[in-house]
């Protein structure tokens, strides 16, 4: 075999320049079809924008559906106070809309009775406002939800470059089955989960290499369907302390592949253990994740990064509140500054890649906060297009806050304050 003409690793080649067709023009483009991206796209569309939602897989919901992470974590603070409303609450209700009864083994569990209208306020102090949903049902529901909102959806489409006009993103360059083309935009929401658009657009980012093997899957046996919440121990602070390796970063192709392969080996072992414990049962795996299941990969470093020290603190530019899914009590206000690009004035960020440091990244990456920040950036992008041709830095934050309140957001400084013991 003649290897003289084979390029070596580290060598470079020259890609010739070419003219790309502009195959669409939208007020707002949302990159990433997870829960944050769905919320952003629908919020922008409901506020009068033409919206295109780009998703690299062939389904919506991200980790919630394709990753089987089926916990819609709490909308409350754990002490009986609801802190998230509006579109995020609508999305929680949508996740269990077709659930006729609870299924404990499969963990399909609807809204607690105390959180239904007229529910017992004292019960709400003990039972959090959360549900567990069927990922396949939710996938189908989200797709119809987005379609009914008038959003243009492009599956199997990956963003590979951005184009600028001054300090605004003018086009996203995408690749899909139609080839390589450009989409014109006035505002962009990065809901990729990995800050992919921020990275391509030259924003400062932070990446972690501490992700562990994890992948939830379902198996079927005689007594029905069961979910297996399989994961090595991870560090909530994004370090290796207390975690079980091997460790991976989510912005490296080889490490992403290694994490997927290692997780599937872990599933095989876990499935074998289940069969050993139930030798007379016919144990069959029926649904496993079809995406890489990372917790914390790469995030925007904006002009402000939310941290644990901001617990129970209020900001004049607060655009949403979130509790801590891990324990009752903490409440964080999400400031507008944590959702804005610095170098790209029409770039907003939603979901697990907002500007939040490792002390609270484990909170802000969860579904409720993703839905919250997605809604904010979708509505904000609409206002920015209306007020300043997409320049989010010129957006009136007070106008945004008023519109959020008008659409069900709970922006009350009293909800952020800690309760007396």
Please give the structural blueprint.
Layout: E1 22-31, H1 35-46, E2 51-54, E3 71-72, H2 87-95, H3 121-124, E4 131-132, H4 135-148, E5 152-154, E6 158-165, E7 168-176, E8 179-190, H5 196-200, E9 205-207, E10 217-221, E11 224-228, H6 253-277, E12 284-287, E13 298-300, E14 318-323, E15 331-335, E16 347-349, H7 361-364, H8 367-388, H9 397-406, H10 413-416
Parallel strand pairs: 1-2, 1-8, 2-5, 8-16
Antiparallel strand pairs: 3-4, 6-7, 7-8, 9-13, 10-11, 10-12, 14-15
Helix pairs in contact: 1-8, 2-8, 8-9
Can you describe this structure?
With 421 residues, the chain is α/β, with parallel strands linked by helices. 46% of the residues are buried. It is built from ten helices and 16 strands. Strand 14 and strand 15 (331-335) form a beta hairpin. It is globular and about 65 Å long. The longest helix is centred in the middle third of the chain and has 25 residues, at 253-277. Helix content is 26%, strand content 20%. Strands 1, 2, 5, 6, 7, 8 and 16 form a seven-stranded mixed β-sheet that branches. The chain folds into two domains: 21-208 and 296-421, FAD/NAD(P)-binding domain (3-Layer(bba) Sandwich); 217-287, no CATH class.
When the domains are counted, the total is: 2
Q: What overall form do the CA principal axes indicate?
A: globular
* Number of DSSP-assigned strands: 16
Please bin the fraction of helical residues. 25-40%
Give the class-level CATH name of the largest domain: Alpha Beta
State Rg: 22 Å
Order of helices and strands: EHEEHHEHEEEEHEEEHEEEEEHHHH
Q: Looking at CATH, which topology of the largest domain would you report?
A: FAD/NAD(P)-binding domain
Helix-and-strand structural type: alpha/beta
Quote the average pLDDT.
96
Unreliable segments (pLDDT under 50, ≥5 consecutive)? none
Measured by DSSP, the beta-strand proportion falls in: 15-25%
CATH H-level name of the largest domain... which superfamily? FAD/NAD(P)-binding domain
Do you know the CATH architecture of the largest domain? 3-Layer(bba) Sandwich
Largest sheet: 7 strands, mixed
**N/C terminus separation:** 75 Å
**Tally the helices: what do you get?**
10
């Amino acid at each position: 075999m003649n290897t003289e003409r084979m390029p070596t690793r580290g060598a470079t080649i020259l890609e010739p320049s070419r003219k790309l067709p502009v195959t669409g023009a939208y007020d707002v483009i949302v990159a990433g079809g997870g829960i944050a991206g769905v919320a952003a796209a629908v919020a922008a569309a409901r506020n009068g924008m033409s919206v295109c939602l780009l998703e690299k897989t062939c389904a919506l919901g991200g980790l919630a559906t394709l990753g089987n992470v089926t916990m819609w974590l709490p909308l409350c603070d754990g002490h009986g106070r609801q802190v998230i409303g509006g579109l995020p609450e609508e999305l929680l209700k949508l996740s269990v809309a077709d659930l006729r009864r609870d299924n404990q083994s499969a963990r399909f569990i609807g809204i607690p009775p105390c959180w239904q209208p007229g529910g017992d306020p004292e019960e709400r102090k003990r039972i959090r406002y959360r549900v567990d949903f069927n990922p396949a049902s939710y996938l189908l529901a989200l797709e119809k939800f987005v379609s009914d909102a008038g959003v243009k959806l492009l599956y199997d489409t990956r963003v590979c470059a951005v184009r600028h006009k001054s300090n605004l993103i003018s086009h996203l360059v995408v690749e899909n089955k139609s080839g390589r083309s450009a989409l014109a935009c006035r505002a962009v929401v990065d809901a990729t989960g990995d800050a992919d658009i921020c990275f391509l657009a030259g924003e400062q980012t932070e990446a972690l290499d501490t992700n562990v093997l994890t992948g939830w899957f379902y198996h079927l046996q005689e007594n029905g369907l069961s979910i297996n919440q399989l994961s090595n121990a991870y560090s909530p602070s994004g370090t290796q302390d207390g975690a079980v390796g091997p460790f991976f970063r989510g912005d490296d192709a080889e490490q992403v592949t290694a994490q997927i392969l290692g997780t599937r080996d872990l599933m095989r072992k876990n499935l074998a253990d289940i069969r050993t414990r139930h030798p007379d049962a016919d144990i069959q795996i029926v649904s496993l994740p079809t995406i890489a299941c990372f917790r914390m990969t790469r995030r925007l470093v904006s002009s402000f990064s939310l941290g644990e020290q901001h617990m129970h603190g209020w900001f004049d530019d607060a655009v949403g509140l979130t509790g801590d899914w891990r324990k009752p009590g903490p409440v964080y206000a999400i400031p507008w500054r944590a959702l804005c690009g610095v170098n790209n004035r029409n770039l907003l960020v939603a979901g697990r890649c907002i500007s939040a440091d490792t002390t609270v990244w484990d909170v802000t990456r969860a579904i409720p906060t993703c839905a919250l920040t997605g809604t904010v950036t979708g509505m904000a992008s609409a206002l920015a297009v209306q007020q300043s041709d997409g320049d989010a830095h010129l957006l009136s934050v007070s106008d945004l806050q008023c519109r959020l309140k008008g659409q069900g957001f709970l922006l009350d400084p009293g909800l952020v304050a800690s309760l007396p013991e």
